[in-house]
């Protein structure tokens, strides 16, 4: 995608009632703008505004003719298969703007996977969970989609390979095991010093629930503006896909 004045990037978050989440998305907007040289704005699927449809209309009104929507979503599921296309369609800008949608963050190929692993490792290091942990729990929001859960499980295996310790995936919302169940399963295997990786963009209710389920453990912060995660979003902003 050419970096021209007619091109913009729309970071599309899930949305949260927690103000910390919107703050992090704002920081990501600034970081991706710096990395791409493009105008970058934020929109949300729920709980916060503007919606994607409203944001696209505003970009059209401001004269942009090409928009790359980058969902801040890790796996495929209902949001990407239904909510995002619906938002683009109902925005009414398809005759004025070329809108393309980036794939989920866990579907961008080997480079995207490596950047996610780097970002997770950096957060684990900051939490003090890298040097002494004898296992890891990879926590994420979870999904009713089996395909989505399999993607997280695949990332857990990659994390296991790169760190050389057992890794279990766990889900804070939809799906099992929960973080508490994963920790119990590791304990049953003789694990004594597990660390907790966080496959979340920003803090909120679900990350708070992970912290509550993992007392006295090293729990990594959400990815936020960690350099490798920002690099991933910059890459997503520049990868062309079929116009929605």
Give me some keywords for this one.
alpha/beta; Rossmann fold; 45% helix; disordered C terminus; four-stranded parallel beta sheet; 8 helices
Description:
There is one protein chain. The protein is 45% helix and 19% strand. It contains eight helices and eight strands. The strands form two sheets. A four-stranded parallel sheet has the order 2-1-3-4, sandwiched between helices. β5 (135-142), α5 and β6 form a beta-alpha-beta unit. α4 runs antiparallel to α8. The model is unreliable at 239-244 (pLDDT under 50).
Write the layout of secondary structure elements.
Blueprint: E1 7-13, H1 19-36, E2 39-44, H2 52-61, E3 66-71, H3 78-91, E4 98-101, H4 110-127, E5 135-142, H5 146-163, E6 167-174, H6 179-188, E7 194-199, H7 205-213, E8 218-219, H8 227-238
Parallel strand pairs: 1-2, 1-3, 3-4, 5-6, 5-7, 7-8
Helix pairs in contact: 1-8, 2-3, 4-8
